[in-house]
Each structure stands twice: as C-alpha cells, then as structure tokens.
Specification:
The chain has one domain (3-265). Helices cover 62% and strands 6% of the residues. The protein contains eight helices and five strands. The protein has helices spanning 25-47, 52-78, 80-85, 100-116, 123-147, 175-197, 205-221, 239-265, and strands at 7-9, 14-18, 21-24, 162-164, 171-172. Helix 1 (25-47) runs antiparallel to helix 5, helix 5 (123-147) packs antiparallel against helix 6 (175-197) and helix 6 (175-197) runs antiparallel to helix 7 (205-221).
Length: 266
C-alpha cells in the first residue's frame, strides 16, 4: 500500500495540560454532547410547557445513568474476565472504555426512575423526546473516539482511509467518522419529525426511529470494525452486533405500535 495516498491521523488525545490537570478531547466532546443535548431538551420542555426544574433533574439522571451504564457495559460485555478479577479497575473510567450498548441500558434504567417520580411525564413520553438529544450526543462521542484513535476500522485501500499513527501504519476505515455522521443525520431526522408534530407525535415513534436507525447502522458498521471483545473473534457476528439485535427489534415494535396508534386516532 502507498502510504502517501491516505489521511495521516497523528492527533494527541490531550487538548492541553495545566499542571497536573489534562483535558482530553474525548472528555470534552462527551461533555459538549450532553450540554448541547440539555439545551435541546430545554427547548422541548419549553415548547410543551414543562418546568425548567424538571430539565435539571432529568440531566442529573441522564448523566449518572449514561456514565454508569456505559462503563459497566464495556467492562462486562467486552472484557468480563479481566474486570471480574480486577473489580477496582472498573472505577478507572479515566483510562477509557465506555460501551454504547451499556450506555443505552443505563439510560433506560435512569429514565424509568425519573418518570416514576415525575408526575405528568410517562416513561415513553420522556424516552421519545430524549432520543433527539441522545442522537446528537452520539455524534460528539464518536468524534471523541476518533481523537483517542480507538474503535478502529478494518484495513482498507480506499482513498479516505486513515492511518492512526499512534496505533500502527495500517490504512483503516474511519468508522468513528462513519458513525458520527450517521448519528448526526439521525438527530436531524428526529428533530424534523418532532418539529412537524410536537406534542401530537404518536407515542413511541421517535424512540422507534432512533433505536431502529442507530442500532441498524451500528450492526452494519460492525463489519468494518476491529473486534473489541476479548472473545468471539472466530464467529461471524461480533458482540456489538449481537447486542444491537434486541434494540433493533424493540425499535421496529415501537414503530408498528405508534403506526397503529396514529391510525386509531385518525
């Protein structure tokens, strides 16, 4: 392969350091995604006459649920043998290792608790609207993975291949960018759907679109990724693909359910 044909990615994961404190691109983009997502949710709540205090409470639930779920998901789904024998390392979140599937599970649990203790906001109501902000957050998180030179793609000779010099000299699919762009498109689609119908949108429609599109794309792009799990390298489907299937099926069921609900209301 002719190295000069490809994009050389030689970017430090660190933005800058002040004394012993180092700000990393991944942490910055992760936080930025959540903050902009919170602004989106403030707009949604304002449009529907909900209180600002509810948004602040929701943000707390989302941050805790997402971080705990993403970290436990990575540790248990992708390298359970190591982390079960070194449980203290589960707390070392600064060393990296967050799984989007665990993130999803953590959010489902956190939002269930939020809805249970918040009158007038059903579980499905909040999941629908938060899907918009979650798609946007995913866009920033995958950019963070790019800066970390992690979640690597398989080798390719395509002209837009990246060579991650911090890893090896092999040209690879920039799957982090593929996913980031895909999640950005999903965010725009969900936002347009919500703006068109707002409070009248059929329950479960936004969540159904989000789950089907997000994990459907994730399933396809897994074929272009280097396997992350410490096991299963010799099987056709990766751990990420097996974990995506239940989310895709749930998304399809929600779409069918919302379609029937819309027809009954018509």
């Amino acid at each position: 392969m002719e190295i000069g044909r490809y994009i050389i990615w030689h970017v430090s994961p660190d933005m800058f350091s002040i004394g012993p404190v180092t700000l990393r691109w991944y942490g910055f983009l992760f936080a930025l995604g959540f903050l902009i997502g919170m602004l989106v949710m403030q707009w949604v709540f304002r449009v529907e006459g909900r209180s600002r205090q509810d948004v602040d409470r929701l943000f707390q639930y989302v941050v805790i649920g997402a971080l705990v779920g993403a970290r436990l998901g990575h540790c248990l789904f992708y390298d359970s043998v190591y982390y079960l024998t070194h449980p203290i390392d589960i707390l070392k979140i600064w060393e990296g290792g967050l799984a989007s599937h665990g993130n999803g599970i953590g959010l489902f649990v956190a939002l269930y608790l939020y809805a249970r203790y918040t009158p007038g906001q059903s579980y499905l109501w909040i999941l629908d609207r938060l899907s918009i902000a979650t798609a946007l957050a995913g866009t920033f998180i995958r950019l963070g993975n790019l800066f970390n030179s992690e979640i690597l793609g398989t080798p390719t000779d395509l002209p837009w291949a990246f060579i991650f010099t911090r890893v090896d000299p092999v040209p690879r699919h920039p799957v982090q960018l593929y996913e980031s762009l895909a999640y950005g498109c999903i965010f725009i689609l969900l936002l347009l759907l919500y703006r068109r119908q707002r409070a009248a949108i059929p329950p479960g429609q936004l969540l159904g679109v989000f789950l089907t599109a997000t994990f459907g794309i994730r399933f396809i792009l897994e074929f272009l990724k280097v396997r992350q799990a410490a096991f299963g390298h010799d099987v056709f489907l990766s751990m990420g693909q097996w974990l995506s299937v239940p989310f895709i099926l749930l998304g399809v069921w929600l779409l069918l359910r919302s379609y029937r609900s819309a027809n009954r209301s018509a």
